[in-house]
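task queued by scheduler; priority normal; single chain, no ligands, no partner chains; default sampling; output format set to structure tokens
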Amino acid sequence: MSLKDFRIIAKLGEGAYSSVYKVQRISDEQEYALKRVKLLNLSEKEKQNALNEVRILASIQSPYIVGYKEAFIDDSSMALCVIMEYATGGDLFAKLGQCYKAKTRLSEQEIWAYAIQLILGLKALHDMNILHRDLKSANVFLTKDSDRIQLGDLNVSKVLRHEMAYTQTGTPYYASPEVWRDQPYNLKSDIWSLGCVIYEMCTLKPPFKGKDMES
């Protein structure tokens, strides 16, 4: 399998070391999300994070986790390519942004449905002793009719080989106090982030904000 087997339809997003595209597999015209992670200038730890995402995705079978399809190294661009299920409804952060602009809110029924599915997705991870470590509305993906959601972007996920993890990671608005204090943390840190996402679904804003990193 190589990039030649796929047709790029659109760019969905871009980070410091990776880009995500909507692609179509030429052989069967099925649409997928392709995450391309640059390997050339990555440190060994960052390469391991990329490979970690593939390993974790491949090991999880849950309707509430973005489905993994396959992965390969593209030699021409020295990139790791991960083929995933394409979330046709975009992400929860964008949906909440649309609500904010339109001065509307999610219904209580929607909030309950999303919250329950988030909990089931986290349970699938935690049952395998895996922390998500970056749960936020931008990493919650929706189906086309928005009736089902899936957790995605597991590149900072970590299997707890010991009881506690120490690496400071995640997104400021959703990170637990122990993460910000650079203290050991465990699966409960994901539950804090879950609470932040549920609060954001209800109010269209995160519960904790500051003007700078210290505050």
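post-processing summary
- The chain has five helices and nine strands.
- The helical segments are 44-59, 92-102, 108-126, 177-180, 188-203.
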